[in-house]
């Protein structure tokens, strides 16, 4: 399996586009009327291994129904939809791209199960570093999605 490609330049940081995306997310949330499904949709949009593909098989029918009621969003392709939903599914704030160091020679870091579960549930976008991988080659840093609230939660949890 190959490594995910580096994130491409996008318009997420444009304040006007950010407002448009926020309005889209709000309308989609209201359309679904199901917070769990909304957060699941977001999570799938942020999967690095499917970022250049079409929506997942279960997302497309939901999106199609949304488009029937909101045709102004009908021209969005999958990458644009993913950009619009590039938010933390826990805190619902936009994710930012950060450069994190690669710990060379470190292949695995495991926390106790309780900490792993707590981080997964409360701070999934709290990268501080990456372990080494053959895919990184000579690179010393990689770009990663980060949520400031996730990072703050994880730092407070660890004390």
Record keyword descriptors for this entry.
about 160 residues; mainly alpha; 3-stranded mixed beta sheet; 6 helices; about 45% helix; about 10% strand; disordered N terminus
Could you give the topology of this structure?
Layout (H helix, E strand, L loop, with lengths): L14 H18 L2 H11 L13 H11 L8 H7 L11 E8 L9 H10 L7 E2 L9 E6 L1 H11 L1
Parallel strand pairs: 1-2
Antiparallel strand pairs: 1-3
Account of the 3D structure:
There is one protein chain. With 159 residues, the protein is mainly alpha-helical. Helix content is 43%, strand content 10%. The protein has helices spanning 15-32, 35-45, 59-69, 78-84, 113-122, 148-158; strands at 96-103, 130-131, 141-146. It has a three-stranded mixed sheet with strand order 2-1-3. β1 (96-103), α5 (113-122) and β2 form a beta-alpha-beta unit.
Put the structure in a nutshell:
This protein is mostly helical. It has helices at 15-32, 35-45, 59-69, 78-84, 113-122, 148-158; strands at 96-103, 130-131, 141-146.
């Amino acid at each position: 399996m190959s490594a995910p490609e580096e994130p491409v330049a996008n318009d997420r940081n444009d304040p006007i586009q950010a407002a448009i995306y926020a309005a889209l997310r709000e309308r989609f949330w209201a359309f679904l009327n199901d917070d769990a499904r909304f957060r699941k949709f977001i999570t799938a949009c942020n999967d690095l291994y499917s970022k250049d593909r079409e929506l997942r098989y279960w997302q497309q029918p939901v999106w199609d129904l949304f488009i029937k009621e909101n045709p102004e969003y009908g021209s969005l392709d999958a990458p644009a939809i993913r950009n619009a939903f590039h938010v933390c599914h826990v805190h619902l704030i936009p994710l930012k791209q950060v450069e994190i160091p690669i710990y060379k020679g470190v292949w695995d870091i495991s926390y106790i199960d309780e900490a792993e579960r707590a981080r997964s549930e409360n701070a999934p976008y709290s990268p501080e570093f990456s372990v080494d991988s053959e895919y990184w080659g000579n690179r010393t840093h990689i770009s990663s999605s980060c949520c400031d609230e996730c990072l703050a939660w994880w730092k407070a949890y660890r004390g």
